[in-house]
Predict the structure.
Amino acid sequence: DSGVTQTPKHLITATGQRVTLRCSPRSGDLSVYWYQQSLDQGLQFLIQYYNGEERAKGNILERFSAQQFPDLHSELNLSSLELGDSALYFCASSAGLAGASSSYNEQFFGPGTRLTVL
Amino acid sequence: AQKITQTQPGMFVQEKEAVTLDCTYDTSDPSYGLFWYKQPSSGEMIFLIYQGSYDQQNATEGRYSLNFQKARKSANLVISASQLGDSAMYFCAMREGAGANNLFFGTGTRLTVIP
């Protein structure tokens, strides 16, 4: 158990709908990351938050948004869902930020939310 | 260009034998970190080992070791004394640049341990 929790575990919805995925980082971790794992795109970084502020953005669609709340949990909102959004969505957390010398800052992954868009 | 390349879609190894999973990376930044993760069939991502670009020695964690060849830009994972529970997908990942945090992942290698 990594200490990162994600809810729900599974989500089935229809095209055009909107869903919210929730992540609670490990106790004390300030950074939260969202990744998408799909068959055609593999594992892709979406977005990172650090202590409530957006820190880095990857291949996140405009239909997707995220936020990190004062209690450090994070939500990923996916709207106008398409069939191609079906994927496993991971949240990861780390203690802080990587330092100037590529320091460790290991990311711990949650169990993922499997989204199926029908 | 792909930042992380894993050329072995699948590998088989006999139980108790050692196996090497290949990973090459592409970056012009002198500061980077390399990670290996294991993803069993249950789906979770399990951190295995880390190598920083400035680390002088190859990383080791129990039965896992990283064969880091900087000039060749390779970071192969060596699993010694394979166990049935090692059967899983293995992903190589890179964090690129000083202060960067997000990971770029390879396409993974599916390892099957044969009894």
In short: The longest strand of chain B covers residues 88-96. The interface with chain A takes residues 31-33, 35, 37, 42-47, 50, 52-54, 91, 93, 95, 97-108 of chain B (CB under 8 Å). Residues 37 and 48 of chain B are 5 Å apart (CA to CA). The radius of gyration of chain B is 14 Å.
